[in-house]
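Predict the 3D structure for this chain.
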Amino acid sequence: MATRSNAAVQASKSGAAQPASRPVPDPGPDLRVPDRRQVAAHGRRRQARVLTFLASACLAIPLVLAAVGHAVVASEQVRSDALQTEIAQALQSQQDYQLQKAELVAPTRILAIAETHLHMVTPTSVTYLPPVNPGESVAQAHEPGFVAPATHLSSSTGVHRQEPSKGSATRGSTP
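Done. Predicted structure below.
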């Protein structure tokens, strides 16, 4: 026959729950008086942890800043290289356009187009017209005492000469 203690052992082996006999008291705060050596050792450990953290931060922060700086420099170098390539391409296209312009405005090309496409011919004689004096300016016409000089065309040279008229006086001189 099984006794009550044997049944409890068998129930605990089979995983069945035991009836709670007494609740276990909750351990409260440790109210022992600390030893001075323990307090000093705890303070030294805390100070060592703080110093280790500060030393790590003093090493890590400049390393992180250097890495960020290198990343910025590298990205700016890539941008600079792209801009240099773009400038080189623009300069090459500008040189190509200048060469095209020089070829298009070449006098031999223009003469060839004029003769072939526009059917123009070279003139046998060229008549040049002499320059014409447009006359007095508006400011000169409104000045008091100003008389416009007469212009004469010299028949031998074909050049205009300006001769003062008899009634005109130069400024600051006596007649």
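The chain has a mean pLDDT of 79.
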